Amino acid sequence: MYKNIAPILKSFIDKKSNSFINNKEMMLQKIEKLNSLLSEAELGGGQYHLDRLAKQGKLPVRKRIKLLLDPDTPFLEISPFAAHGTSYTVGGGCVVGVGLVAGKECVIFANDPSVLGGAMTVYVQEKWMRAIQISRDNKIPFINFVESAGADLRGAQGGATETRQLQYPHFASSGRSFYEMTELSKLKIPVISVVFGSSTAGGAYQPGMSDYNIFIRNQSKAFLAGPPLVQMATGEISDDETLGGAKMHSEISGFSDYLAENDSDAIRICRNVVNHLNIYKKSNFSLKTSFEPAYDSEDLLGLFSDDLKTQVDIREVIMRIVDESRFEEYKPLYDSSMVCGWANVFGYPVGILGNNGPIYPQTAEKSATFIQLCNQTNTPIVFLHNVTGFLVGKEFERQAIIKKGSQLINAVSNSNVPHISFIIGASYGAGTYAMSGRAFNNRFLFTWPSAKIAVMGPKQFAGVMSLVRRAKAKRKGEKFDEKLDKQLVEMIETLAEKESLALSASSMVTDDGIIDPRDTRNVLGFSLSISDNNLIKGADGYGVFRL
Fold it and tell me: Which ranges of 45-101 would DSSP assign to H, the alpha helix?
């Protein structure tokens, strides 16, 4: 262990100012709303269904997860706000997250049987694929809590009430999740399934693609087709237990590897299985001594306004999440719109890129070089988004904004070290690409309640559409309806603002969840620890740069 000697950043915020106080109150209100949604998600399909499961001796899905985790250890839940504002239950019908089991970080994917009998809704499918990706990218065990009626054959019922709604793909494209699960095993990433109840069709394939299967006596059932369908197809009459019960699969078919007596016993066995796995962290880092930041994380609540028009010095965020608030800034005198530098978080070395304005040609050049340097030293990169996009106009085109912007996106795309992104303010247009947005294979991406993600700001978007309509009318020689255009501008701006909000993006599973700003350091630290399970090695080469 050795001490970081980088300088300590100095804060310049006025915590007694009206703007800070108002920002903090706004943020706390947003957090309160999110907490109420989390409470709603915890109820799953509702108290009636939870009571029904309890009468069968079954534990709620979150209780199962809690029993699985090591005592007093964190659980990093992924996409808990999925499906918010749609006809589906908040959370989408499953729980996904990363937690410590027998001292090992594991991905947990758990069907919620209180929601449509654990059926595979489009949101379950999306979160399932994300869970597999986290397991694969970080080489950590994948644990399935299976209790599923199979595919949700209803399709999309109703529609979105507040946000857009994911759509079902054609059946021909289905099955990818099963392919990905077998890939995990191929990569020597253990896959463990605990079958808690009836698992039919696609639900039966979950344990079918697993390395270890745990069934529960008189409770677990797995079959490709239940007794009614078998009777219709073959005329054969059978019951659940003889067709696909836990005893049969444990003693006759051999599908089950362990036979448990109840939910708690099954979870005990699962912990034992994880405990015997001969897997360990790669120990990529020589960790420095960890120290708390010099500034209070509570201050993060008051930095951002609701409209994001006031620019925030990103260093005020950095100094509240890194060890001792020490930060070695790279090229501090060259281009102030991007802050780049090195720090430690819980002793883990990181490179940090944070926006202090839009992306200029010089910004792109500086950032691309910094990303390459991080790859040369095998250093994970943290991206702090608050960007309106790339600068446009004659002057910037002459300064090769396309060429230099492409260099930055090239650097982000070809970087092999873990990227962990936080959208804390705006993330507009190609700026989200340059800052390793969702489409750029980051290890984790979280948003703050203040975040806004869109192709451009609502006012700009509405204004552009107005100009397009005006130009179209001129081409056709038609009179332009100013009154109607004003109405359309207001409507489009309102809709664009709504769809840009963090909760809208999170409901569509385009992030890993909205977090309390005060939790940023802990979430980042846990994400780095998870990433440390796989070998961290920077890129050996890059695509063609237009130099």
Answer: 47-55, 61-68
Residue type, 531: S
Nearest to 135 by CA among 164, 169, 177, 91: 177
CA–centroid distance for 138 within its chain: 14
Where in the chain are the domains? 27-276, 297-451+501-531, 455-500
pLDDT tens digit sequence for 241-265? 877 889 999 999 999 999 999 999 9
Pairwise CA distance, residues 244 & 197, whole Å: 11
Question: What is the second-level CATH architecture of the domain 27-276?
Answer: Alpha-Beta Complex (3.90)
CA atoms within 13 A on the CB side of 66: 7
Domain 297-451+501-531 indexed as CATH 3.90.226.10? yes
Same fold, 27-276 and 297-451+501-531: yes
Sheet with strand 191-195: strands edge to edge: 75-77, 94-101, 104-111, 142-146, 191-195, 212-216, 258-260
Q: Could you tell me the pTM of the whole model? A: 0.92
CA–CA separation, 212 and 507 (whole Å): 32
Percentage, residues of the chain above pLDDT 70: 92
Residues 6+ apart with CB under 8 A from 104: 140, 141, 274, 277, 279
What ranges make up the beta strands (E) of 218-257?
A: 221-223
